[in-house]
Design a protein that fits this description.
Radius of gyration: 27 Å
Number of domains: 2
Structural class: mainly alpha
Shape: globular
Number of strands: 6
CATH superfamily of the largest domain: MFS general substrate transporter like domains
Largest sheet: 2 strands, antiparallel
Strand order of the largest sheet: 1-2
CATH class of the largest domain: Mainly Alpha
Helix content: 55-70%
């Protein structure tokens, strides 16, 4: 690995290679560095290289395990309708819980990303363990109390339940970001960085599938006739509290960014080439952080022992300088990221795609309920929320892995991992290549097709067709959620990934909240209308609880489809519009 070789070169050169003087530059430089470096290719991996590789692999396994458990929020629709039925929550109150999840899942991400880039992923994983245990145990206790009282909305119980779900959303954000950032930084230099990112992201989507199956097949209520009933919400919450606390503690020990200093070195070199460091007191000659970059520091001393020490800018005495250097580089890249107009177009596009997807997933259970008017006779059992939560999880997972691997093979990639400030180096032309943006737009359109199928009434009274909607929305949602962070690493680098991704990832909170409220308003209006006399095709219960028919959701999902189409135009503008990525020569 290049980073390990560079470290070995610094150490060995400083101790074994004679120093010669360059009269033109008045600097000291090691003789025969190039021949020494070329000889490394003939040597077996050093113990340091093997240790770094092992640490990366361990961190990858821990990150995937964390992601495979962290997505418990995606199964909300599995028990959302139970809150409506057992605790007598209105549709607005059920969506209030979903919104509290979404807001705390996304809004804190910039702050958490800032912390992750500067302190590492382990503290976030530890915080997730504590928060998951607190949130799910509190929610379990409140649910049981609500059942005993016959209502869950009186007094302080409902605000407390909102608080519990807010804690769960915040914990999810901590664990997910820690897992993804670890993989992005540890494998961002490799040619399979897309797949390395897609695996934990896919694991997050897959977690909803297996957790919903555990809930519906193991942690279920037994009906009087001995058959399976709905999920036992209390036992399910306790199970999640114990599981996620244990996984969070495992991530505290196992999640680690290996050779992070080399990422900072590469970023500094690129910033120097771009001219962004000109005028900086930190990196100017004589500045506290100038030493160790570019040529070896100038010196009039010919003491070989002192000069050998000067060749190693990473010795123990320089820890404070390395921290200051890292802080400056990360802040500079954050500023560059925020000042890029294409980032804002891209982030808004992400909002307008993910918002409808989040709202659909959160309300999947109640949408299914609108397909089956109680007076209409069906052959067989109606489809269940658990089935379609699993379909969303499977299609989302397949789409994430597929896009991650295909973009590694088909999409062009810059050789470096730092921010693409200027036009990237010329890359060898592939016989056939497809931009990552093309993949993103394709799957966004698939998501919109699923929304149109639902809005058109094609599914009404035909719940067996609902897999078309859940499959298309799951595939589109998963692919966009996978491709967006991959595109961020390719354009804006990996060393500041957690902060950059955090800024973009907070946008869906607004979209999910907005669309959740719109869906609730349309549904509630339909629920308040009494069913038409002599019909069974549509209408409400008349008491504001349940709604049946296309008028409960059609307007909402037509508007969602338009939102996704608008997002496609925004992303297209960032890609090929004025001063977009194509014009700037950015490889994507």
């Amino acid at each position: 690995m290049r980073s390990s070789q560079r470290s070995d070169i610094r150490t060995d050169v400083a101790t074994t290679t004679p120093l010669i003087r360059s009269d033109s530059a008045s600097t000291l430089r090691p003789a025969s560095i190039s021949s020494y470096a070329s000889s490394l290719s003939d040597q077996s991996p050093s113990p340091r290289q093997r240790g770094a590789s092992l640490a990366r692999n361990i961190s990858f396994v821990c990150a995937v395990l964390c992601a495979l458990c962290a997505g418990s929020v995606t199964v909300f629709s599995l028990y959302g309708h139970i809150f409506q039925e057992r605790l007598h929550y209105s549709q607005f109150e059920v969506n209030g819980l979903a919104i509290s999840l979404t807001v705390t899942l996304y809004l804190p991400v910039p702050l958490l990303g800032y912390m992750c880039d500067r302190t590492g992923p382990a503290p976030l994983s530890f915080a997730a363990a504590l928060l998951f245990a607190s949130g799910y145990f509190l929610a379990a206790g409140l649910y049981r109390r609500g059942l005993a009282a016959g209502t869950g909305v009186g007094g302080w119980e409902y605000p407390a339940m909102v608080g519990a779900f807010a804690i769960i959303g915040f914990a999810t954000s901590c664990m997910y970001l820690a897992a993804v950032a670890t993989c992005a930084k540890n494998f961002g230099k490799g040619k399979h960085r897309g797949l390395a990112l897609a695996v934990p992201i896919a694991g997050f989507g897959l977690s909803g599938m297996w957790e919903s199956q555990v809930a519906s097949r193991i942690l279920y209520e037994t009906l009087p006739d001995g058959s399976k009933g709905d999920v036992d919400v209390f036992r399910f919450f306790v199970f999640l509290a114990v599981l996620l606390a244990a996984v969070g503690l495992l991530g505290t020990v196992g999640l680690r960014v290996v050779d992070e200093q080399d990422l900072i070195d590469d970023a500094v070199e690129e910033l120097e080439r771009s001219g962004m460091l000109e005028g900086s007191a930190l990196f100017s000659p004589g500045g506290v952080l100038h030493r160790g970059y570019g040529a070896v520091e100038q010196s009039n001393s010919f003491d070989e022992e002192a000069d050998a020490e000067n060749l190693d800018p990473f010795k123990d005495g320089d820890n404070e300088q390395a921290k200051k250097r890292k802080e400056w580089v990360l802040n500079a890249e954050t500023q560059r990221f925020l000042s890029d107009h294409t980032m804002w177009c891209f982030a808004l596009g992400f909002l307008f795609i993910i918002g409808p997807g989040e709202a659909f997933i959160n309300n999947l259970g109640t949408v299914i309920g609108t397909l089956y008017p109680p007076t209409l006779n069906f052959v067989g059992n109606p489809t269940s929320a658990a089935t379609h939560v699993s379909i969303v999880g499977i299609t989302s997972t397949v789409a994430r892995l597929l896009t991650g691997s295909l973009t590694d093979i088909l999409a062009p990639s810059p050789q470096a991992t730092h921010i693409q400030i200027t036009s990237s180096q010329t890359l060898p032309k592939k016989r056939f290549s497809v931009s990552r943006v093309t993949f993103l737009l394709f799957f966004a359109v698939l998501l919109s097709i699923g929304l149109v199928a639902l809005a058109s009434g094609f599914i009404q009274n035909h719940g067996e067709r609902f897999w078309i909607v859940s499959g298309l929305v799951g595939a589109g949602y998963g692919a966009v959620f996978s491709l967006t962070p991959i595109i961020i690493t390719v354009i804006w680098g990996v060393e500041n990934f957690a902060t950059n991704w955090g800024i973009v990832a907070m946008f869906p909170a607004l979209g999910s909240t907005t669309w959740g409220l719109i869906y609730s308003a349309v549904y509630q209006a339909g629920a308040n209308d009494p069913p038409p006399s002599g019909t069974a095709s549509s209408g409400g219960s008349g008491d504001g609880s349940f709604c049946y028919g296309t008028h409960c959701y059609a307007l909402t999902f037509w508007a969602m489809a338009v939102s996704v189409w608008s997002a496609c135009f925004m992303v297209l503008w960032a890609w090929k519009g004025r001063n977009g990525w194509v014009q700037r020569g950015i490889v994507i």
